[in-house]
Design brief:
Order of helices and strands: HHHHHHHHHHHH
Radius of gyration: 22 Å
Strand content: under 5%
Low-confidence stretches: 139-146
Number of strands: 0
Structural class: mainly alpha
């Protein structure tokens, strides 16, 4: 691959435009260096990268699964189940089954105690995350409406069933991931992975159109039930 003087200027001034032009031509050992000079949010302006992210979400990756995503990004979960319950159950199960061979009388009390501690630790972490998010939102410029729309999605007063809450949360996580807004997610795995390429240029647009249609049909069905 040869880069002329004009392209070198583009690379210096706008690495995103350079990526847009050479995404499929850059060798793996070079393209990974763009992780240090661009952000996941900036790279989301490139349709091919958004398509890769969408294709990745369709593989049901663990980092975007319900349990792990709710633990890593609890600020986006608005369900009724208390945060930390899964971790608390794991602590209790370990104490009851794996500690001291599961001697029931003393281990049972220890399991309950560890479970309570873990749930309280997770609850405190969640409160801290939400305080930080509230403080950060005070400084969000008005121009960043698109990000705010994503962050506010699904937080209305509409009563949802537990199944609907999980579906809403999973969709939100997927959308936030695609648009580079999930802090701490492994974007390098996807953005530079040619295995997630698709020849369908309208893949992402059609996917979200179908999702919107499904939601409309579901809401209309619920309205008719009333």
């Amino acid at each position: 691959m040869e880069v002329d003087f004009q392209d070198s200027v583009i690379l210096s001034n706008s690495p995103i435009e350079f990526l847009r032009k050479y995404l499929h031509l850059l060798p793996p050992h070079l393209i990974v260096s763009f992780s240090s000079i661009t952000t996941p949010k900036q790279r989301s302006t490139i349709p091919e990268i958004r398509n890769r992210r969408l294709a990745y979400t369709e593989t049901k990756p663990k980092q975007l699964g319900l349990v792990e995503a709710r633990s890593r990004w609890p600020q986006f979960w608005h369900g009724r189940e208390r945060s930390g319950q899964e971790a608390a159950r794991e602590e209790k199960d370990w104490a009851e089954k794996g500690f001291l061979g599961g001697r029931t009388q003393q281990v049972g009390k220890l399991g309950t105690l560890l479970g309570d501690y873990e749930e309280e630790r997770e609850a405190e972490r969640l409160r801290g995350v939400r305080r930080q998010q509230a403080a950060a939102e005070e400084f969000v410029p008005e121009e960043e409406d698109s990000d705010s729309d994503l962050s506010d999605h699904g937080t209305g007063d509409v009563q949802e069933s537990p199944e609907d809450q999980r579906a809403t949360f999973e969709r939100r996580i997927k959308e936030l991931f695609i648009y580079g807004l999930l802090e701490g997610a492994d974007y390098d795995l996807v953005d530079w992975g040619e295995q997630y390429d698709t020849e369908d240029d309208g893949y992402e647009e059609r996917y979200f159109d179908e999702e919107d249609e499904d939601e409309t049909v579901e809401v209309e069905g619920k309205d008719q039930d009333y």
